[in-house]
């Protein structure tokens, strides 16, 4: 009888090797899946790619971030320099600089609601635009200004033009003679009266106001934003904000020629906090007209220091300069 032969099969050592290889494959597969998931999570939280401005889909900020340095703003606001001078060029048709709109003069006067044209008694005045006379007489009984007998003899003209669908009124005060009547329609440059010193006036001059929206002392606007500048000249319009984005009130401003920062060419102050309104379009804090076209340096004094800003005045236009940024855009 023959001895039995061993059964053919896989040696135990080979089975062990196969099991170990399978375990390593499973471990590798699990590790790779974990790494792929982690990579996917990292991709979702990565810094977004910066795209060209035309391809951006995120909402832009509603206003620029505040800047510690002045920002020159191009004159994107629409000018409304539509009024003729109330005094002919053969007389003094220049705005007096010692008491401009919103200023306190030498510091003792109340904030000014208009501008002045200094001329002798009897100098003729004229309509600055076409319109209708809505008042002509004294203010002894009817108060048109700060109090009764404030303007003396005065004329108020409502213009045919409107602004932002609001009426425009022009007031002429301290007259020695009135040559028009209520309801009379006028064309631009028609004669209407003569300069005097009635009411509260220290000498003969024309007090001239622009009122927007209502014939009200509290609705005045700076006439230098409405009067057409003299030939070769333009108007500076300014805004000044502090570090909190609030208007800087009654601050001193000097205008210099670029090559001479020692002697100011003109001195301005920003508007007071109350009793004065800004133009409905410009929302300005200071303004100065009839500047010779060309380059200037605007210096704002505030908080014990000053900031300079270069600006170029354009012939026949308004140029807006801004110091700081508003806490909220004024529209």
The fraction of residues assigned to DSSP E strands is 25-35%
Low-confidence stretches: 1-8, 30-76
Mind describing the biggest β-sheet?
9 strands, antiparallel
Would you tell me the overall average pLDDT? 84
Range of helix content: under 10%
User: What would you give as the CATH superfamily of one domain?
Assistant: Glucose Permease (Domain IIA)
Radius of gyration over all CA atoms, rounded: 37 Å
- What is the N-to-C order of secondary-structure elements (H for helix, E for strand)? HEEEEEEEEEEEEEEEEE
Separation of termini?
Answer: 116 Å
Q: Assign an overall shape.
A: elongated
Structural class: mainly beta
Q: In a few lines, what is going on in this structure?
A:
The chain has 331 residues and is mostly beta strands. It is built from 1 helix and 17 strands.
What does this structure look like?
The protein is built from 1 helix and 17 strands. The protein is mainly β. Among the domains are: 102 residues, Sandwich (Immunoglobulin-like), CATH 2.60.40; 111 residues, Glucose Permease (Domain IIA), CATH 2.70.70.10. It is elongated and about 130 Å long. The N terminus is likely disordered.
SSE map:
Elements: H1 12-44, E1 71-72, E2 115-118, E3 124-126, E4 131-138, E5 153-163, E6 166-178, E7 185-186, E8 191-195, E9 205-212, E10 220-221, E11 233-240, E12 252-256, E13 266-269, E14 286-292, E15 294-302, E16 305-313, E17 318-323
Parallel strand pairs: 11-17
Antiparallel strand pairs: 1-17, 2-9, 3-8, 4-5, 4-7, 5-6, 6-8, 6-9, 9-10, 11-14, 12-13, 12-15, 15-16
């Amino acid at each position: 009888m023959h001895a039995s032969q061993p059964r053919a099969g896989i040696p135990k050592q080979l089975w062990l090797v196969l099991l170990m290889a399978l375990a390593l494959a499973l471990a590798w597969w699990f590790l790779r899946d974990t790494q792929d998931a982690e990579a996917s999570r990292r991709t979702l939280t990565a810094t977004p790619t910066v795209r060209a401005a035309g391809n951006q889909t995120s909402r832009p900020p509603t206003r620029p971030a505040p800047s510690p340095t002045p920002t020159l703003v191009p004159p994107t606001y629409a000018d409304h320099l539509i009024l003729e001078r109330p005094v002919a060029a053969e007389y003094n048709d220049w705005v007096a600089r010692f008491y401009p709109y919103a200023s306190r003069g030498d510091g003792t006067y109340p904030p000014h609601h208009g501008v002045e044209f200094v001329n002798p008694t009897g100098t003729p005045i004229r309509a600055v635009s076409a319109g209708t006379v809505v008042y002509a007489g004294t203010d002894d009984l009817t108060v048109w200004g700060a109090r009764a007998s404030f303007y003396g003899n005065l004329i108020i003209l409502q213009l045919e033009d409107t602004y932002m669908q609001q009426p425009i009124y022009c007031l002429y005060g301290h007259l020695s003679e009135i040559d028009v009547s209520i309801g009379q329609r006028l064309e631009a440059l028609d004669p209407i009266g003569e300069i005097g010193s009635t009411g509260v006036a220290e000498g003969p001059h024309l007090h001239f106001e622009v009122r927007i929206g209502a014939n009200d002392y509290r609705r005045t606007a700076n006439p230098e934003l409405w009067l057409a500048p003299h030939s070769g000249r333009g108007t500076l319009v300014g805004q000044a904000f502090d570090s909190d984005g609030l208007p800087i009130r009654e601050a001193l401003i000097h205008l210099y020629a670029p090559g001479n920062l020692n002697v100011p060419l003109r001195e301005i102050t920003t508007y007071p906090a109350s009793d004065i309104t800004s133009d409905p379009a410009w929302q300005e804090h200071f303004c100065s007209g009839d500047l010779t076209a060309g380059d200037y340096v605007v210096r704002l004094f505030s908080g014990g220091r000053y900031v300079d800003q270069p600006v170029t005045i354009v012939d026949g236009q308004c140029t807006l300069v801004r110091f700081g940024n508003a806490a909220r855009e004024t529209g």
